[in-house]
Design brief:
Elements: E1 10-14, H1 18-31, E2 35-38, H2 42-49, H3 60-70, E3 73-75, H4 79-83, E4 86-91, H5 106-118, E5 124-127, H6 135-146, E6 156-159, H7 169-174, E7 179-183, H8 186-196, E8 203-206, H9 208-239, H10 244-252, H11 271-274, H12 296-310, H13 316-338, E9 347-350, H14 365-375, E10 381-384, H15 389-396, E11 401-402, H16 406-412, E12 415-418
Parallel strand pairs: 1-2, 1-4, 2-3, 4-5, 5-6, 7-8, 9-10, 9-12, 10-11
Antiparallel strand pairs: 6-7
Length: 422
């Protein structure tokens, strides 16, 4: 076994690209445990054995040399030499796209199959490769069951997505903003939580499918933000006389990006009166809900889409944003309807304004959601909002009931839906 002594506390990492190598060296540095790595690319393994990186990644090379010298990181000459010694195995193999866009899981399933061929002794299998939601449950779990293994009893299975940026992998791994652990059994959850307990970062313990989804959620948001920026730049270029650099510099100066702390007023007075109010975290705009409303966002998005069209740009991002904003309202109405036992079910809606703490009901999602329910035949609807009921009634004149307070609504309705927090 390549002159490697058995160590029941050893970690194996399969796949030594940016993610795998950083994971292997990072765990050796942070946890003090011995780590053994394997990569199917023999040339890459030889380069690493010499203490050299096969790619550019700041700081990682120095720590590779350090742990090779200390013996806390070793390279296995075969997958068998790596996995037979380990009680925890990280799979960091590639999942490239097929021609139709689907993720190719062949490398991952082959690595798991090969691992089980070597030894199916109880150990924790950790999928760090990026995989579509439900991969662990619908692909890997059946694979293990065909081997006669029961997750949580004979073996462990967890999803542990990475959030590393190339060029910053070492810093990102050693100082993570969050650690996501997807596990559906106590053995897997507790084992991986203990491993990561030495990191000074919040641990999000969730289901395997949710962990897989979180990775896609993160990356698609980044892709959307980039495409939005590029689409807006194309529109600016076509308009002419717009300095794109200045425009985005000003955009990034919005305090909501950084959420600075608001200093106390010298006399302990009212911050609202001084204009020193706590800004809203930009992350609050990146949360699922009922869609945006009010005066500015719908109006300005529509106007920019129209302006883009005049410039000869089909603003797909802007059109998609508006389309999704309409689709989510019908979706929310359909979800409410799905919980009803009949058309006579008493439905309660809380929150009528387009944003909490306001009486502004212009283009509020609540109106569209209620209208969809009414059109579907649900006429027993009661609503409540501490600020916006009068303006809502005047603006929309819908055939619905208005509760005097929240308790009255809760007491009279079977289904409660919060459209906006109040």
């Amino acid at each position: 076994m390549a002159n490697i002594k058995t160590d029941n506390n050893m970690i194996a990492v399969l796949g030594l690209g940016f993610v795998g190598l950083t994971t292997a060296i990072g765990l050796a540095e942070k946890t003090g445990r011995k780590v053994i790595g394997f990569d199917i690319d023999a040339a890459r393994s030889r380069t690493l054995q010499e203490g050299k990186l096969p790619f550019h990644e700041p700081d990682l090379g120095d720590y590779l040399q350090k742990h090779l010298k200390q013996g806390s990181f070793k390279l296995a000459s075969s997958l068998a030499d790596a996995v037979v010694l380990a009680d925890t195995i990280f799979f960091c193999v590639g999942t490239p796209s097929n021609d139709d866009g689907r993720a190719n899981l062949t490398y991952l399933t082959d690595a798991i199959e090969a691992t089980l061929d070597v030894d199916d002794t109880k150990r924790l299998l950790v999928v760090k490769s990026t995989v579509p939601p439900h991969t662990s449950c619908e692909v890997i779990l059946p694979l293990l069951e065909r081997r006669g293994l029961v997750v949580g009893h004979d073996t462990g299975l967890a999803s542990n997505p990475e959030f590393l940026r190339e060029g910053h992998c070492w810093a990102d791994f050693m100082n993570p903003d969050r650690i996501v652990i997807g596990a559906d059994d106590d053995y897997s959850a507790q084992t991986l939580s203990r491993l990561y307990s030495v990191f000074n970062a919040p641990i999000i313990l969730t289901s395997r499918s949710t962990a897989e989804y979180i990775k896609y959620l993160s990356n698609t948001l980044l892709a959307t933000m980039i495409s939005f920026s590029n689409e807006m730049a194309m529109i600016a270029d076509r308009l002419g006389d717009v300095d794109v650099g200045d425009a985005f510099k000003a955009l990034h100066m919005d305090r909501r990006w950084t959420l600075p702390e608001v200093p106390d007023t010298p006399d302990g007075g009212d911050k609202e009166a001084t204009g020193s109010t706590q800004p809203v975290d930009m992350a609050s705009y990146v949360l699922p809900g009922s869609g945006f409303g009010g005066y500015c966002l719908p109006k300005d998005t529509k106007a920019m889409a129209h302006l883009a069209q005049q410039c000869g740009i089909d603003a797909l991002m802007l059109h998609g944003t508006l389309e999704t904003n309409e689709l989510i309202k019908r979706h929310r109405a359909d979800l409410i309807a799905s919980r009803c036992t009949s058309k006579d079910t008493r439905i309660g809606i809380i929150g009528l304004s387009f944003k909490p703490g306001s009486d502004d009901v212009r283009d509020t999602p609540a109106a569209a959601i209620i209208s969809h329910l009414l059109q579907a035949g649900y006429h027993n609807i009661t609503v409540y909002d501490p600020f916006a009921m009068e303006t809502f009634a005047q603006s929309y004149a819908l055939p619905i009931n208005y509760a005097h307070d929240r308790d009255a609504l809760l007491a009279s309705c079977e289904i409660i839906e919060v459209i906006k927090d109040v």
